Amino acid sequence: MALDNLVSIEFTTVELDKIKLAIKDIDTVLAGKAINLTPEERHRYARVSYEMLPWVQKSFGYMHTEPTLVPAYIDMPELEKDFKARTDIEPNYTSLRSTFEKLDDLMLLLGHDMYTSCIAFYKSVKAASVSNVPGSTTIYQDLAQQFPGRPKSADGTK
Questions:
Q1: pLDDT in tens, 42-55
Q2: Could you give the CA distance from residue 50 to residue 10 in angstroms, rounded to a whole number?
C-alpha cells in the first residue's frame, strides 16, 4: 500500500520564532481587552453573522437619524464605542481567520501523513507479532492500547 505524502515542509528556527513573536505581539495588544468565554457563555450570546451585519448596521443608522425612538436604557455612547471597536478590529479578525484556516489545514494534512504512516507501522508490527517475530509482541501490545474495546482473538492478540 503506497502512502500519500500530502505535505512535505520544514520550518526554520527563524521562521518559528517570527510566528511566535507575531502571536505574542497580538496577545500583548489584546491583553486586558479580550475576554475568555466558557463554552456555555459562547452559546449564550448573540452573534452578528455576515448575514445579520447589514441589519445591525441599518438599525444603528436609524438610532442616529431617529434618536427619539431609542429607548433610554440603551447606552448610545457605549454602543458607538462597540461599533467602532468591532469595525476597527474586523479586518484583522478576517485576516487571522484566514491565517488560522491555513494553519488548521496544514495541521490536518501533517496529522494525516503522520497517522497513516503510524497505522501502517502498527499493522506491520501486528503481523510480525502474529508471526512471533522477536521483539514485536511488546511493541504491538503497547500500541494496541490506543484501540481498546476490540475483542482479543484466541491467540491473545487483537
A1: 999 988 988 999 99
A2: 36
